[in-house]
Amino acid sequence: MKVIDCINKSDKTFFTFEILPPLKGENIESIHAIIDPLMEFDPKFIDVTYHREEIVYKPRPGGLLEKTIVRKRPGTVGISASIKYKYGVDVVPHIICGGFSREETEDALIDLHFLGITNLLVIRGDNLKSENFFTPDPAGHAHAIDLVRQIMDMNKGKYLDEELEHTDPTRFSVGVAGYPEKHFEAPNLKTDLEYLRQKVNAGADYIVTQMFFDNRKYYEFVGQCRENDINVPIIPGLKPISVKSQITALPRTFSIDIPDELVQEVMKCKDNSQAREAGTEWCIQQSKELINFGVPILHYFTMGKSDNIRKIARAVF
After folding, report:
1. 8-33 per-residue burial string, b: 16 or more CB within 10 A, e: under 16
2. Number of domains composing the chain
């Protein structure tokens, strides 16, 4: 079932979560270990992220530098298909701009459609660690809206090669990312909301937010979206604090604020185990408040482990 249909057919708040593909060299069992403990809570879909390769430049004789890929994750298409048919649950693979040409994107979309996977989360993706700014593939897309438009063209049976035969229309439903505290590259929130409105107008069915730790940020964001004629469902994305260092690392990485009350709770913890418990309890309370607010779905970022998400789900669902 498409995510948007799931939302429209019920007034209940559903549980969903997101997983990271394993590092190259690991097997599918590492994914099962994350998913298995969460299946009792009847997730309506599972997101599968895509992470770009990591590149370093190694010095070679003569002063030259050799571009070398040092970290690569298995393909999202294969992982998504494996999850869909093992667990019988809908999956939402992430489709990104970075590292892909338009032709490679089309090939991936053809494979996903063939496999019966019709939900997508479309994001630009991050720049490589070796880049100061995001640099698209020369034959790829620079912005998520361009990806949305390519997918909407395929839904109309329009492919890159106009002479391609058997160009049946696809049936993709697309979600896009929203930032309650604005994307760090946007000059201001008003501009960021305009970019988001354009993505929705291009064909996005719903929005999934960046993580936040103060529910008031989400409530204000929803209100601002509605004032700017963005009327699709807005799914809150939640990530519990799991180690003490995240108090400083998450704001630095994702340009978000962490409420002082949570900072104080975590800082007084003696170790990461206590910090994980404090983060879990905070997320439980966040989740309960958001359900009372009437959110359609609570979406959790597992970040490679699910024990804390399981505790949250048991307390909330």
Report:
1. eeeeebbbbbbbbbbeeeeeeeebee
2. 1
Q: Would you say 192 and 185 are in contact if contact means Cβ atoms under 8 Å apart?
A: no
Residues 6+ apart with CB under 8 A from 174: 120, 121, 122, 148, 151, 152, 203, 204, 205
Q: How buried is 67 (Cβ within 10 angstroms: 0-12 exposed, 13-18 middle, 19+ buried)?
A: exposed
pLDDT at 226: 98
End-to-end CA distance of the chain: 21
Task: Give domain status of residue 147, yes or no.
Answer: yes
pLDDT in tens, 168-197: 899 999 999 999 999 988 999 999 999 999
Helix, strand, coil percentages, rounded to 5, for the chain: 45, 20, 40
Six token digits for residue 151:
């997918």
The number of residues making up the chain comes to: 317
Could you tell me if residue 260 is inside a domain? no
- Residue 149 placed within a domain: yes
Which two tokens mark 68? 């070398």
The answer, yes or no, to whether residue 74 has pLDDT greater than 60, is no
**Whole-number Cα distances in Å, 16 to 10, 89, 96, 160, 296:** 15, 11, 20, 33, 11
**If pLDDT is split at 50, 70 and 90, which confidence band does 56 have?**
low
Which CATH number covers residue 226? 3.20.20.220
